[in-house]
Amino acid sequence: MPAEPKTVSWPAISRWLLPLLVSLAALLIVFQQVDLAQFSAALQRISAGRMLLASGLFIAGLLLRALSWKLMLGSAFSFGTAFAGLNAGYLLNNILPFRLGDVGRALLLTGDGKQQRPFGEVFATIITERVLDVFIGSVFLLLSVRWLSDQPALRTAALAGVLLMCLVMLLAGLAARHQQQVIDFLERKLPAKPFWQTRVLHFLDETLTGFHFFTQPARWIPAALLLIFSWGFSMVQLGVLQQDVLSSSSWFWPMLVVSAGAFINALPSAPAGMGVFEAAVVGAYALLGVANGPALALGLALHAFQFIIPSLFGTVGLVALNKNPGQFLSKVWNRAPKPGGSQ
């Protein structure tokens, strides 16, 4: 008998629809406001030498970020494994919506073998990295808006981000320190069904084990400092590109633009943050009085680095971790939660 044709279900479509709509809306808004002649001229002014230097700075930041994640993972993992897993996650984020590369990054290191841990423990380190990132980005944003006296709302949002992430880190550390009491409490409160008492509770137990990182200053302080230096390399990278595109600029501009780009990338956009990242960069430069054309050129240049370099390293990383890229991509997509709560 001939095989029945495969049908595309609404849940599968809806997993792509929202992020695509967000990205398309962002792209439409950006290109409606951009002088394409200015944009083209600005893009052509970026020299090959600047691009090469910016590539080196980007890779240096990646290396520092991988070292920071290695500290979060613990001594059982090598730097090579952390670097391969980090870039493989970025590769998947460039292909899949909703930052599903973070799920893939955790799955890569999940198991019982050498340099592998339970899924919840690994995923907790990724949550930890994101929390520290938001905290650091909020601090940088708070520092940069000091020179924008007409932006009190932005200053308030940055301060709220700092305080919220401090609270999250404090609660995560307290929950990890009292892990058994938390699990016992949840065991009593959660519904007496196998899904809640086994899968959910087991995952939470693994996650709290990963959050013990916050109770160990000898680990989280160096990891946070490495992330700060990684952010610094991103700002220097943008500063290098600015020298070709903008006739004048202030030293704090990259701090504001990089922070804005990082925050907006958290939206449920299409793969690689298409559109929303450019919108954030153009919007941040607009606050500084920079025309949309040159701002979009810088945004696209930055985004090209973020897409191409981690994708190349990520492909090599998947092979190094003995994963078939196509098969692993399918595994991550199938592991992700479906709309409506289906698993």
SSE blueprint and pairings:
Blueprint: H1 10-33, H2 36-44, H3 48-73, H4 79-93, H5 101-108, H6 119-144, H7 152-177, H8 179-189, H9 194-210, H10 217-245, H11 253-264, H12 276-287, H13 292-320, H14 325-335
Helix pairs in contact: 1-12, 2-13, 3-4, 3-6, 3-10, 3-13, 4-5, 4-13, 5-6, 5-14, 6-7, 6-9, 6-10, 6-11, 8-9, 10-11, 10-13, 11-12, 12-13
Tally of helical segments: 14
Q: Please, what is the average pLDDT?
A: 87
Distance between the termini: 31 Å
SS-based class: mainly alpha
Largest sheet: none
Calculate Rg over CA atoms. Answer: 21 Å
Helix content: over 70%
Report the β-strand fraction as a percent range.
Answer: under 5%
Residue runs with pLDDT of under 50 for 5 or more positions: 338-343
String of helices and strands: HHHHHHHHHHHHHH
By DSSP, the count of extended strands is: 0
Outline:
globular
Number of domains: 1
If you had to describe this structure to a student in words, what would you say it looks like?
- The protein has one domain (35-335).
- The chain is built from 14 helices and no strands.
- With 343 residues, it is mostly helical.
- Mean pLDDT is 87; it is low at 338-343.
- The longest helix is centred in the last third of the chain and has 29 residues, at 217-245.
